[in-house]
Design brief:
two-stranded parallel sheet; F-box domain-containing protein; 454 residues; disordered C terminus; alpha/beta; 13-stranded mixed sheet
């Protein structure tokens, strides 16, 4: 009897026993390993995690069973899977090739490094390129080389020159996430810095998937070298033949540290380029973070012009400063009346944006809200009096649909013991309270991530 045919209670008992007794993929013999993987896949229908490179693991991966390859949908590869080779790190993941080629139902592939051991980008690109290489009998068939839909690179190192590696393995991607999280480069020696052509390589990766890419997330908040802060979204502009391909992108999320020379300091120009390259965006996150408050990008009504070009935009997230130009900066910690004034300013900006494009959700990241450098989020819901023009409804982008109404999600400081200190009302109609993970739950691929394995 197949594991998928067993009842849920029996499957859960088997999985619990397997997790309790065997914490390493390599510690399980071949038969138990197959049982463990089958039970996990049958119950969770999510990820299998490859987190070690013991000899028994490598052998099992180099000679995977047909049943295993037919069952796998999503794979999470951690830095522990890297094999020490003579030319490491170039080919430290190539023992996974047979598994990936044979797994015709493989849908998502995550490479998740750690702070002290990020996965080299060169090893990932070499592995993906090898999936499309010719074999002794000729080129792989479509059944043998099923395109991966979702690729996530998390805590990846860019120390080696990858400019000459073919990027054919990225063709067919629909979702691409490239994340270098905060502080991930701490502990890395000064000699180990991102390669100088890193931004150009990342641009080539994105362009390689341009014909199918629908969701792109780039998070460089952890870069302490300054090299990735040179990334410019305008580098993605291509030939006239690429116009149709770029129109397929629906979700764009960019998070980046900026400094005085960063291309993103031309914020209006960046938005203009985004609106021209990706006119069909439905979700746009553009989070620019500075190390010092004085370096924050300030709000300007000029952003309304490029935003008005995005006729299908329904979810917007920005991190702009409103306070410095009007000399209303932080005076003391936990000043809820200052929070309320900041909220009113972002409410007015949301209303102005809603008047020129069909957003239904707007999020503002307010940085440096106290002496400790903490952040605050302001959430707004936008509704239309005519009750038409919801996201995905072309009527809202093609015609006037009535007046827009901006509603404020109740902030934490208004519903807690701080509320009695607030002088004055919140802006507009208040709804809520705001859910902590509201944004993520409304978007299935925003934080799709494998559950940690024991």
């Amino acid at each position: 009897m197949a594991f998928s045919d067993l009842s849920d209670d029996i499957l859960l008992e088997i999985a619990f026993c397997i997790k309790k007794r065997w914490r390493s993929f390599a510690a399980v013999n071949s038969r138990c390993r197959a049982a463990a993987l089958s039970a996990q896949l049958a119950i969770r229908k999510k990820f299998i995690t490859i987190s070690d490179h013991e000899s028994s693991t490598v052998k099992a991966l180099e000679e995977p069973t047909k049943q295993l390859m037919n069952a796998i949908r999503k794979v999470n590869v951690t830095s522990g899977a890297m094999v020490e080779t003579a030319n490491e790190p170039k080919f430290g993941l190539n023992h996974l090739r047979s598994l990936f080629i044979g797994s015709t139902m493989l849908d998502a592939l995550f490479f998740i490094g750690s702070n002290d051991k990020p996965i080299p980008l060169i090893a990932i690109l070499n592995l993906l390129a090898s999936l499309n290489l010719q074999t002794d009998t000729g080129r792989l068939t479509n059944a043998q080389c099923n395109p991966i839909r979702f690729l996530k690179l998390w805590e990846i190192s860019y120390f080696e020159d990858c400019s000459d590696i073919p990027l054919t393995g990225l063709a067919g991607l629909e979702i691409l996430h490239i994340c270098w999280q905060r502080y991930s480069s701490w502990g890395i020696s000064e000699e180990r810095k991102p390669y100088k052509t890193t931004c150009e390589v990342l641009v080539k990766m994105i362009k390689a998937a341009r014909n199918t890419l629908q969701s792109l997330k780039i998070d460089f908040l952890g870069d302490r070298s300054g090299i990735l802060s040179k990334f410019d979204i305008r580098m993605l502009a291509g030939d006239e033949d690429d116009v149709g391909a770029r129109k397929k992108l629906r979700k764009l999320r960019l998070s980046i540290f900026i400094h005085s020379g960063s291309p993103f300091r031309d914020f209006v120009g960046t938005l203009e380029a985004i609106a021209d390259m990706f006119p069909n965006l439905e979700t746009l996150d553009l989070i620019t973070t500075a190390r010092k408050y004085d370096d924050m990008i300030r709000y300007t009504p000029d952003i309304l012009r490029p935003l008005s070009k995005l006729k299908f935009l329904h979810c917007l997230m920005l991190a702009l400063d409103f306070e410095r130009d009007i000399n209303d900066e932080l005076d003391k910690d936990h000043d809820v009346n200052w929070y309320n004034r900041c909220l009113h300013r972002r409410y007015a900006a949301t209303q102005a944006i809603a008047n020129v494009c069909p957003i239904t959700r707007c999020y503002w990241k307010h940085q440096f809200i106290d002496s400790e450098g903490n952040d605050e989020w302001y959430h707004f819901v936008v509704e239309n009096e005519s009750k038409i023009g919801k996201p995905g409804d072309s009527s809202r982008s093609d015609k006037q649909t009535g007046n827009t109404m901006v509603k404020t999600k109740m902030p934490w400081w208004f519903e807690s013991y701080w509320w009695h200190k607030v002088e004055g009302d919140l802006p507009g109609e208040v709804v809520g309270p705001a859910e902590k993970w509201e944004y993520t739950t409304s978007d299935p691929d925003y934080y799709e991530f494998p559950n940690p394995e024991p």
